[in-house]
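#onboarding

Welcome to the new folks! Below is a worked example of what a typical request in this channel looks like: someone posts a single protein sequence, and someone else replies with the predicted structure as tokens. Don't worry about understanding the tokens yet, we'll cover that in week two.

Example request:
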Amino acid sequence: MPAANLLALIDDIATILDDVAILSKVAAKKTAGVLGDDLALNAEQVSGVKAERELPVVWAVAKGSFLNKLILVPSALLISAFLPWLIVVLLVIGGLYLCFEGVEKLAHKFMHSKEELELEHAQKLAAVADPKIDLVALEKTKIKGAIRTDFILSAEIVVIVLGTVQAESFSSQVTVVSLLAVAITVGVYGLVAGIVKLDDAGLYLLRKSVSGSFNGIQRAAGRGLLIIAPLLMKTLSIVGTAAMFLVGGGILVHSIPVLHHILEPALHSVESIQFVSSIVPILLDGLVGVIAGAVVLLLFTFGMKVFKKSS
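Example response:
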């Protein structure tokens, strides 16, 4: 009898782990858009420090990220247990914020000339190179800024994951959200560390190619890494911005029934066309994300002007 009970227990645990694995995959797919932006933002945040301080800064931000998750995960689980209706509200707020941030990034890029953006970048580089600048204070400021950014993105990720598994048992919610929070933090900051050190790896290979038996290969690999590093940062930024609209718009469409009903005719008209039927919903989510972000940005800008006038 005890053996049978043990086997039953093992079977239950295996079933739970299997369910958790499936739920984690679904939740991870839904957070992919936020992760793309998370990678780009955090890599950009730490890219202005001295080369030898890049990894310590990434580690400091990663520790701050773990602390953020330690606050956010229990808070989200408590809300799910006692105020489950609030999850949808938080999802909508998170979706609107994603869309707003995406439009704000586009507005900053397209409302400033290329010369202005290059000047801004040059000023940042000059500030880092200036011996009068307190690099310790600058580093601490960057770390604090990156941790604040991480807190916002982590909150969005945790809420999206929790929204995905909200219908499951509380134990499954705890397991999936906790595991993904740890896995995402390790994965994101591991990749950030790799991204910010790509150029150093390229320079190392170029220097090593001066002497050695594989000079040509090392030289080509070093040059390739130096070319790939900035392109990777740009690609992550573009993909992250696009994903913000897709994820944010998708959250709004699925959380606000009115929006879903408005889009239903368009979805029904293409459901018989195999390839188009899978692309149109994604494009519509992105369109909703852009429109929602533009509306929020206009309201925010108007509100800030009114606040400044009143003060």
